[in-house]
Structure formats: structure tokens, C-alpha cells
Design a protein that fits this description.
GO molecular function (chains A, B): carboxy-lyase activity; pyridoxal phosphate binding; transferase activity
GO biological process, one term (chains A, B): amino acid metabolic process
Protein name (chains A, B): Pyridoxal phosphate-dependent transferase
Shape of chain A: globular
Strand order of the largest sheet of chain A: 3-9-8-7-6-4-5
Distance between the termini of chain A: 57 Å
Organism (chains A, B): Arabidopsis thaliana x Arabidopsis arenosa
Number of helices of chain A: 10
CATH topology of the largest domain in chain A: Aspartate Aminotransferase, domain 2
CATH superfamily of the largest domain in chain A: Type I PLP-dependent aspartate aminotransferase-like (Major domain)
Oligomer: homodimer
Helix content of chain A: 25-40%
Structural class of chain A: alpha/beta
Radius of gyration of chain A: 26 Å
Number of domains of chain A: 2
Cofactor (chains A, B): pyridoxal 5'-phosphate
Largest sheet of chain A: 7 strands, mixed
Strand content of chain A: 5-15%
Largest interface: A-B, 160 and 161 residues
Chain lengths: 428, 428
């Protein structure tokens, strides 16, 4: 692409803070401004360089300092950063123009805007005084990984579009599976057809496995029986389970959320589950999915995987273990017991963007049978076909969106963090 | 969280390249190493600071230079960067350990690893010689926006968790809608119930509107009629449309992909559509969704929105306009004609991560009736409830995943780019 450029605005230095190397050249990446009469007055044509290395260097350094200063101030002057944003709904509308600005602004102006208009609307999740949901969910390593990911701007929707993306994802998920002592059948190098794939969130993870399980059972019983399918969770199960089922066309009244109470520490009672299944079978329903949770979001309840797994096995039902909230803690040997019984699960998910210090969002999912996911979600358009045979790298196409864009930020995170993770003691 | 730290490994300088400020203090963010006998031998307890400002500053600058050098080399020594990765499937497995490394590595070691092991597996989408799919899909501004987003690590799954995230998304999507001259009913400030929301990709966008349209029609006709629902696209429509329908439980044989040929430049023939609808109605099917495309991925075909819109209106069918691939070009006045007829659409989507230089992924979606999306996809768990009334900021909960994590990177992008975007001439 090329632009005509005149000289109307191209001699200012606002855009790059005036430090010399991009002033006055009318370049897209410098401070030039393409005015309407560029071509008309015979201006020279300049090449667009969206990723100009020197502009990236200069402005990237400014941005690093901006972010580092934010964390410094958050630490040194907590009184200036109320953890919970104090703005009123609609506050921003009055501070911004009604239409997109007509002219570019300098980075300095833009960062001033961020400080004055955006910062008051930020709830400071990384503040040392933040204790809602889950605290301190990112890290310097996570941030650096995101930078590298965004900087290389890798697109990974097939193996060929950047082989490292697909391969690293698979390898690192094997590493993580080993740290969690997941059974061999969840490894891409295991004897079966298992493996891991990164989803955006636990909500996406439960959605894709509900779909995989749904299609597996419908293939057997015929798709007209969709209205007979039933699923099981507890009244502590995350709301995304219901959402996933509704997306997949499961009838709302067929979502059984079993009652829990303090007698089981709000874990799902296996007897209630088996009773519900028997009852449903007797009435002609088709039980096909159990969502067990290790650390529910609402109450940190832990469902008893061993008896639930036995029931799932007995009745041939897909057992998903949603450990999005707390599962990563099971890397610690003293907490591994909470996923004892995982051997009988068909899928397992946890969020690396919680206690593993990955940035939002990074939600590894492991499945025993990757073909169930691929069958449910594959697309094979001509423009994504390629000649290289990749079967032995276990190429997944399991995201509900085409792109799976994670690159070695994960690698970065685990290289640096693994030792800390394995040894850390989590304070109650 | 606190760690016991001994002195076994905590006096090295590997982790931060030994430049002084973090060496030898056993700090989590420095180069300390938590060994197993930390507590046993009475070591001091140090606080964990996952986002240590000075470590972030130091390592962030190193990372900026690494990325800037990559783009410099890509430009200056293209021979060292074959655009298409030349590795063989499985290449990475042999270069990495089987398990996660036990000890942290220095940033320098890690970046060496990236250069030697990851880079050969990268297909260089930002290379000036890259012409597949869509070229040069990011920019310095996009990168800086991602840095800021990752750096602040904002979580936006409700208004309260960072009001600026929700509000800025809505405002900027109004800006973009105005640039595209979308009809008033797609604006959050319009007379109706419309508005914009950012999805990850065009694939996600078509999924959420298929679900919204499905639930709208099933509410009317009863959910047992799901097997009667039919949808329409063309043989040029993106494969994600089929995938979205299958996820939503639409029967595969009810997906009508109408034949196109060179006589309509591979656009969907309105006569074929009307004929198919009449035929389906006569047989008792329920037509509920048309996916029209402006710039198909396979052939850049443009479906004729005006006649398709009239048909959709006549039969009360949801019309989605998938302009993921080419829609952003319609910001240019000379290309706006390609979305003439958008007035009769129920939803419109385009990808800002294509010609608008946003990083992957950023896919704005506008709908005429936001409640159709909210009804289909809302969740109301207790832990996401809050007391503030936000109705007048039009808070959407329309992502299929809970988090909608975009923050003012968009603002950044549009501030800087809007002038260029509106004036640019796209070379054929």
C-alpha cells in the first residue's frame, strides 16, 4: 500500500515526541499526516511501514516506562489508586469525543489521556490490596510473554501459518500435564489419542467439551434425540456450564443441578447423582455429561472425583473436571489429592491466568480423545488446506474460533516459573 | 503469598543478566531461587511481587529491543527470514526438554532460545514479502495497545471489574460505526436497542448471532422445532458459518449453501435465495437466518445486500452481514457502496485485525437488537452481580466467554489511525 503525502501536517513533531528520528518525513510511521490533497499537489509517494522497527523501539520504550511507573505508583502511593474504581456509570462518554478524532495524536497526548480518563475507570486487579475473585493474576514474565506474542504477531490457525505456535502449545501442555501428574492418556505422547489445547477461558473449555460429548452421543443415538439429552452438575457449578449447554441446544429443563449442603462441604453427593441418572434413564432420558468441579467459583467446593468417575464409567457418561479456579494448585504435591480420580475423567481444565501468573486469558484443556473435539469442531475449507502431513504432531483444530494464537509466552512463563510454582505455599 | 528462601541458589545472577538491582536478594522477581530447604534452615521470608515495577522496566526494555531488532532484521536481511517457515512437522519436540525445566532461566537464555528454536518455526506474516491471507495485519500502534492492555492486565467481565473497559468498547464501536456510515440503529446512542461489541474473530461473531437468531425464533415457534430450522449462505460463505450452525444444533442438511457462478461474480443470487425459502416454507421448514458476505475469504465475492435485505425483511429472517475480510475497506467513501443495503441487516461484523492494523484478534460486531444477544448468552451468577445500575451505559454480556478483556488499545489504534484509514487507497 502506498500513500500520497502532502506537506500540510507532515512537518510537526508531535507524534513521536520530537526526538529527532522521525520528524518531517511524512512517513506513515513517523509523524506525517496524510492530507486530502496529497496526490493533487504532486507529493512524493512513501511506503507504508506498519511495523517500523525504530518507531517501535522508541515508542515501545516509552510504553514500558509508562507501565512500570504505574506499578511503582500503585505500590508507593496506594492512596491515589482506590482498588475499586470510583467512577459512575457513563463517566467516559462525556470525556471522549462523539466521533473518532480526525487527526492522530502524539503518544504523549495519548498517555496523558489514559492517565486522566482511563485510569479512574480501572479496578486495580494487580494492587497489593486487591482481594476479590483472584488476586495478582499476572506477572512480569506473563507481561513479557504477551509483549513477545503481540510483537511477533504470530497467527496460528493452521500448523503452516506458524509451526512453532502449534508445536509449542502441544509440548508445553504436556509439560503442564506432567506437573499436574495427569494420567498418561491426557498427554499428546501418551498411548491413546489424548492431548492438550489452550482455550481462552474455562467457559470456552466447558463449551467445547459439551459439544464434543453431545456430538459423540448423538452420533450413536441419532440427532433427533437431542431433546432427550441430560447433563449433571451441582448447584455450585459455574454458570458457564448452563450457558454451554444452552448454546449446544440442550434443553434447559434437562440441566440437572444437584443440591449440595454443608454435609459434603458443598461437593456433589455421588448418591444424588446416581439416583438422578437412574431416574432419568427410567424415564427415557439420555444422560451424557457430568460437570464435576475442583474448586467452584461460588464456594471453592470440591466434588469427589473418585466416586463420580466410577458412576461416569458405569453409565458411559462424559466426565469433565472443571478446575478452572483452583486446579493449578494441584501442581503442589500437597494438593494433588484434590484431583485423585482424574483417571476416569474425559477432560480436565484449569486456568493458567489464575495462580500460574499467565496474563488473561490462558485456559489449558486436556482431553482423553482429541478426535471427539476435532469431529465436533473441525472445518476444512480449501484455503486452510496444505500439503504437509502433520498427523504426528497431533495438530488440533479444536478452538471454536479458527485462530489459536498463543505462542511462546507460555514457554517463557513456565521456564521462569516452574520452580516457584512447584514449591509455593498458598496461604489460606 | 510468601516464600521461604534459602541461600542455595539465591546468589546467582543468571535471571536478570546480572546488572545489579536484583541480584542476590532471593526475591521472587529477582534472581532468587526457592529451594526446598528454605524454611528448614531459617531463611528470611520475602514478599512475592509478581509485578515488580523495576524488573518489569528492565526486562520490558530488553524485550522492546528484541522485537525492534526482529523487524529491523526482517527488513534489512530478508534472506535470513524465509517468509514461509521451512521446518518439518515435529521439529520442535527434539529441541525442547520432555518436561518443564526445573530451574528458571535468564531472560537472555530465553531470548536465545526464541531466536534459535522458535524463529525457524515462524511464518513471517509481517514480512514485506508476505502476500498470503492478508498482509501486514498489525502496526506499531496495535503493538503499543497490546502492551498497555497486557501491562494493566485489566479484566472486564462486568462493568465494575473495570468500568473503562466496558465503556470504551461501546464508545469506540460507535466511532467505528460512524466511520462505516452504519445506520443509526447500530449505534449504542441510536433510537433503538442496537450497539457494538468486540468479538475475538468473525467466527465467534457469526456464532453469537446464529445463537441469538436461533433463540429468537425458537421462543416464537417452540424449541422442539429446532430440527425444522434452516439457514442460507452461498458456496462462497466462510466455513465458520457451517461450524456456528452445527454448534447451535442446526441440522447439517438444513444448511443451504446456494450455488454461485461467474455470472454474479460469485455473489449470492437473490432469485436462488427466494426460491429456496419458498421451497422450504412449502415443506414446513422454518427459514430463520441468512449469512451474506461482503468479501468472501475464498473469492472476495460480494453478496448483493439490497435485494437480500428485502427478502430477509419480507420473510422476517435474521440477516447477518459477514464483512470480516473486507468490511473495514468500506470506511473509504469510494468503497462504502459495497455495504449499501446494510439498513436491512440485523447484524454486521468486520475484523479490525485486518486492514485496520489492530493486532490479532479484534472483531467488532454490531447488532440492531442487543437484547437478542443478551437473552441468548447471559449468565447471572451471584458473584457477578453488583449494585450499580448500568443500564444507561448499555452493558453487554454478549461474549460466549465471560471475559471481554479489551481495553484502550482500541482507543490508541483509532486515535492514531483514523485519519490514515479514512484517506487510504487500497491497491488492488
Amino acid at each position: 500500500m502506498e500513500f500520497g503525502t502532502g506537506n500540510g501536517y507532515s512537518n510537526g513533531n508531535g507524534y513521536t515526541n520530537g526526538n529527532g528520528h522521525t520528524n518531517g518525513n511524512g512517513n506513515y510511521n513517523g509523524n506525517g499526516h496524510v492530507n486530502g490533497n496529497g496526490k493533487a499537489n504532486g507529493a512524493k509517494v512513501v511506503k507504508m511501514k506498519p511495523m517500523d522497527s525504530e518507531l517501535l523501539r522508541e515508542q515501545g520504550h516509552i510504553m514500558v516506562d509508562f507501565i512500570a511507573d504505574y506499578y511503582k505508583n500503585l505500590q508507593d502511593s496506594p492512596q491515589d489508586f482506590p482498588v475499586l474504581s470510583q467512577v459512575q456509570p457513563g463517566y467516559l462518554r462525556d470525556m471522549l469525543p462523539d466521533s473518532a478524532p480526525e487527526r492522530p495524536e502524539s503518544l504523549k497526548e495519548l498517555l496523558d489521556d489514559v492517565s486522566k480518563k482511563i485510569m479512574p475507570g480501572i479496578t486495580h486487579w494487580q494492587s497489593p490490596s486487591y482481594f476479590a475473585y483472584y488476586a495478582s493474576s499476572t506477572s512480569v514474565a506473563g507481561f513479557l510473554g504477551e509483549m513477545l506474542n503481540a510483537g511477533l504477531s504470530v497467527v496460528g490457525f493452521t500448523w503452516l501459518t506458524s509451526p512453532a505456535a502449534t508445536e509449542l502449545e502441544i509440548i508445553v501442555l504436556d509439560w503442564l500435564a506432567k506437573l499436574l501428574q495427569l494420567p498418561d492418556h491426557f498427554l499428546s505422547t501418551g498411548k491413546g489419542n489424548g492431548g492438550g489445547v489452550i482455550q481462552g477461558t474455562g467457559c470456552e473449555a466447558v463449551l467445547v467439551v459439551v459439544l464434543a460429548a453431545r456430538d459423540r452421543i448423538l452420533k450413536k443415538v441419532g440427532k433427533t434425540l437431542l431433546p432427550q439429552l441430560v447433563v449433571y452438575g451441582s448447584d455450585q457449578t459455574h454458570s458457564s456450564f448452563r450457558k454451554a449447554c444452552l448454546i449446544g441446544g440442550i434443553h434447559e429443563e434437562n440441566i440437572r443441578l444437584l443440591k449440595t449442603d454443608s454435609s459434603t462441604n458443598y461437593g456433589m453427593p455421588p448418591e444424588s447423582l446416581e439416583e438422578a441418572i437412574s431416574h432419568d434413564l427410567a424415564k427415557g432420558f439420555i444422560p451424557f455429561f457430568i460437570c464435576a468441579t475442583v474448586g467452584t467459583t461460588s464456594s471453592a467446593a470440591v466434588d469427589p472425583l473418585v466416586p463420580l468417575g466410577n458412576i461416569a464409567k458405569k453409565y458411559g457418561i462424559w466426565l469433565h473436571v472443571d478446575a478452572a479456579y483452583a486446579g493449578n494448585a494441584c501442581i503442589c504435591p500437597e494438593y494433588r489429592k484434590f484431583i485423585d480420580g482424574i483417571e476416569n475423567a474425559d477432560s480436565f481444565n484449569m486456568n493458567a491466568h489464575k495462580w500460574l501468573f499467565a496474563n488473561q486469558t490462558c485456559s489449558p484443556l486436556w482431553v482423553k480423545d482429541r478426535y471427539s473435539l476435532i469431529d465436533a469442531l473441525k472445518t476444512n475449507p480449501e484455503y486452510l488446506e496444505f500439503k504437509v502431513k502433520v498427523s504426528h504432531v497431533h495438530h488440533f483444530v479444536t478452538n471454536i474460533k479458527e485462530p489459536s494464537i498463543y505462542i511462546e509466552d507460555l514457554k517463557k512463563r513456565y521456564h521462569i516459573h516452574v520452580e516457584y510454582i512447584t514449591k509455593m505455599t498458598i496461604r489460606n
